[in-house]
Design a protein that fits this description.
Length: 177
């Protein structure tokens, strides 16, 4: 019996040692897991921060300048068309719809650019952020080009209508003295 108690005591000591080893192993695994999670967390949180060199990128300034010119260009072109007196109310409604849609699209682009350049809004790598800014630059450039072409055509049409009105008045003077 004493011999069995001695063996049980040895077995109990080995069991305590094994339990201690398992406990240390589980703690180590937990620490590794937490460290890995913290590293991933740190990485993904860093994707929310915008690199200052991207904020100061010349394309960003160009986009902002074009967006400002788009907003004011739409207002200016519509005011010029309205004040010329060469367009009917239906024509002016159409022009208002075109310029209004262009302004709405530009405001969406402004919101997107703001989101791209604000810390914490989007989780993107610098390359992804720059690629999206490149696409946005092209989209804004296309809208700006459309505004310039469309406004030019509207002014050309206004001048032609004005010239036609002058020609009609001159013709009436010739026919009816």
């Amino acid at each position: 019996m004493i011999e069995q108690l001695g063996k049980l005591e040895v077995y109990l000591q080995e069991l305590k040692q094994g339990y201690s080893i398992v406990q240390k192993g589980l703690t180590t695994i937990g620490d590794i897991k937490k460290g890995d999670f913290d590293l991933h967390s740190l990485f993904f949180n860093s994707l929310k921060d915008v690199n200052p060199s991207i904020k100061n990128w010349s394309k960003v300034a160009d986009i902002l300048a074009m967006q400002v010119q788009l907003v004011f260009g739409c207002q200016s072109s519509l005011q010029q068309a309205a004040s010329s007196g060469n367009f009917s109310s239906t024509d002016l409604q159409y022009l208002d719809a075109v310029f209004g849609n262009l302004k709405t699209l530009t405001e969406k682009d402004i919101d997107e650019l703001t989101s791209l350049l604000s810390d914490g809004d989007r989780q993107m790598t610098d390359d992804d952020r720059m690629a999206r800014i490149d696409r946005l630059y092209k989209e804004v450039s296309d809208k700006y080009s459309f505004l310039r072409t469309f406004s030019s055509r509207v002014m050309t049409e206004s001048n032609q209508r004005s010239q036609q009105r002058t020609n009609l008045q001159d013709l009436k003077k010739l026919i009816i003295p």
